[in-house]
Design brief:
Elements: H1 2-17, H2 19-33, H3 39-49, H4 55-64, H5 72-77, H6 79-85, H7 102-124, H8 130-139, H9 142-160, H10 165-189, H11 193-225, H12 228-241, H13 274-284, E1 297-300, E2 303-306, H14 307-316, E3 320-325, E4 330-333, H15 358-373, E5 378-385, E6 388-398, E7 404-413, H16 415-419, H17 428-431, H18 437-440, H19 455-458, H20 474-480, H21 484-491, H22 501-508, H23 513-519, H24 524-538
Antiparallel strand pairs: 1-2, 3-4, 3-7, 5-6, 6-7
């Protein structure tokens, strides 16, 4: 409770600096977003009212929008317009932090991303050479690590201070960047040069826009809101996730020089482990956390285990586990070395709704609601991520009296498992060099084709009809339903570019519904529903 009050004070402290100023800014923003005034009128009013706006004031105004009936969806879709209102008066702060500080590392990565964008922009102006682009895209992989640390480390700190808009808005923008990179890379690998060039221009613009928002707003606000002690903890968690572009930051223990362990060279400091968290929990309940704690035997449902054994079991499970309690708080994740998606200690204690991007949040909360009501006990999904096939199972955790106690998420890379055929009756150590064992045993079975993506979960193919799924190609859709082109043009202003027949012909041959939805700032489910409605109407 005290921690919650302290976090609330952090947000109120910024608000109390100049409540009148912030109230005036909010009035202008709300009037614009509710279409009462134009962009030019909003800019003029703001300049007449204030000389400058600090990054933390900008962030706080963004946070306050929900109190005026402005939804997260509206904020996300119109964030560029909101930033435009503040053009010229958003006061940039020179960021000065020591090498090794988490914000310094973010800035180093931003610098590398900017260099990479410059290279890609120059490459667009030169003769197209596929291998050179593939090399650039290999380097671009560092962007995903950059985003992972923000989502698992930086955003939880903002949420603890009462700021949840940075995570909700920026996470959506980051997903849009990921999608753009994914689609561009697919076009590149398929030698669809014209499509790739169009998509690559969008990748460059999105990356530049994201970096500007980070440097001008996110990082200065973080330095105002987050304590040095928290940054030291962030540094530890950052090392679990890793860094992009070959960056290896120096050890960071704050300016107080207090540190638990000195590290040399590339040696990493001890991370916060499950064992430490478990011992802290025991201490809160008055149980011993002495040096002998790891040897104490605990009664579990079927057997007796020490804390060390429990910890080792979780570390060696061939699956990733995460547990959210009945209050929707993340309480645990298994710190295995093979994690499919990154996690860090910063996620512990975080609301589950803040651990997922806006696009998948409705599905997650629907699962939690069904588990709590007792309507469902499991929900399963599977994803094809490049050459990996990921299986995800959500399980409702209940006590002996059937009371809901939380949600267990189980995730596993089952790529190899899906490829197995026949039987393995001999010790695998002795047959690793003996290929064709299955054939020798006479049990060579035909491999069953599995769904390409999660679109099959709710939309199984129907015989004789074209099923609208995430990966449905626009050219196939138009071929069966010619009127769909007209419908697409009416769904989003951004689809107007498709009126160009050459561009439409080029894009439709490779563009999927998922890609088109992303371009039009629509949810793919929303787009599919609109198209199905039109198809039904035409029948």
């Amino acid at each position: 409770m005290d921690k919650k009050r302290d976090n609330q004070k952090s947000m109120e402290a910024v608000l109390d600096k100049n409540r009148k100023k912030i109230d005036g800014i909010m009035e202008i923003k709300v009037d614009y977003l509710k279409n009462r005034i134009t962009m030019e009128e909003a800019k003029l009013k703001l300049r007449n009212q204030v000389e400058f706006v600090t990054p933390e004031e900008f962030a706080l105004c963004e946070q306050q929008l929900s109190k005026y009936g402005i939804s997260d969806d509206v904020i996300t879709k119109r964030i560029d317009e909101i930033v435009e209102i503040f053009d010229g008066i958003l006061q940039s702060k020179e960021i000065s932090v020591p090498d090794g500080h988490p914000i310094h590392t973010y800035l180093l990565e931003v610098e590398e991303i900017r260099k990479l964008v410059d290279k890609m922009q120059q490459q667009l102006e030169q003769k197209f050479i596929k291998n050179q682009w593939l090399e650039l895209y290999d380097q671009l992989e560092g962007v995903h690590i950059h985003f992972a640390r923000k989502q698992n480390q930086l955003f939880p700190r903002f949420e603890n201070k009462g700021f949840d808009k940075p995570s909700k808005v920026m996470w959506t923008l980051e997903n849009k960047i990921r999608d753009s990179i994914k689609f561009a890379k697919e076009a590149l690998e398929k030698d669809q040069q014209e499509v790739f060039v169009i998509l690559q221009k969008e990748v460059n613009v999105l990356l530049e826009d994201m970096m500007d928002k980070e440097v001008e707003v996110l990082y200065p606000t973080a330095l105002e809101m987050i304590s040095e002690e928290e940054f030291v903890e962030m540094y530890k968690g950052d090392q679990e996730i890793g860094y992009g572009f070959g960056i290896k930051p120096k050890d960071f223990s704050g300016t107080s020089n207090k540190r638990d362990k000195v590290t040399d060279g590339d040696e990493k400091p001890d991370s916060i482990s499950f064992m430490e968290d478990f011992m802290n929990l025991l201490e809160k309940h008055g149980l011993s956390t002495s040096s002998k704690t790891t040897d104490q035997v605990l009664d579990v449902s079927r057997g007796k285990l020490t804390l060390e054994q429990i910890n080792l079991i979780f570390k060696h499970l061939p699956v990733d586990l995460s547990f959210v309690d009945e209050n929707d708080l993340v309480k645990f994740y298994s710190d295995t070395k093979h994690r499919i998606f990154p996690r860090s200690p910063g996620v512990i204690g975080r609301k589950v709704e803040n651990c997922h991007p806006r696009e998948s949040l409705d599905t997650v909360m629907k699962i939690v609601k069904a588990f709590k009501s007792g309507d469902r006990d499991q929900a399963e999904f599977w994803l094809q991520i490049e050459d990996q096939f990921i299986y995800i199972l959500f399980v409702a955790v209940r006590d002996e009296n059937k009371n809901f106690k939380g949600v267990l998420e189980i995730m596993q890379d089952v790529t190899r498992i899906r490829s197995l055929t026949g039987s393995q009756r001999l010790l695998s150590w002795e047959t690793e060099e003996n290929e064709g064992v299955e054939s020798a045993l006479g049990e060579d079975r035909k491999k069953e084709k599995a769904p390409e993506d999660e679109g099959y979960i709710d939309n199984p193919p129907e015989k004789g009809t074209l099923v609208l799924r995430n990966d449905t190609l626009i050219k196939d859709l138009i071929k069966e339903y010619p009127f769909i082109k007209e419908e697409l043009l009416s769904l989003s202003p951004k689809f107007q570019k498709l009126k160009n027949p050459i561009l439409f012909k080029t894009m439709s041959s490779v563009a999927t519904l998922e890609m088109i939805a992303s371009r039009g700032n629509l949810e793919v489910e929303e787009l599919i529903a609109a198209l199905e409605k039109r198809i039904e109407k035409e029948r």
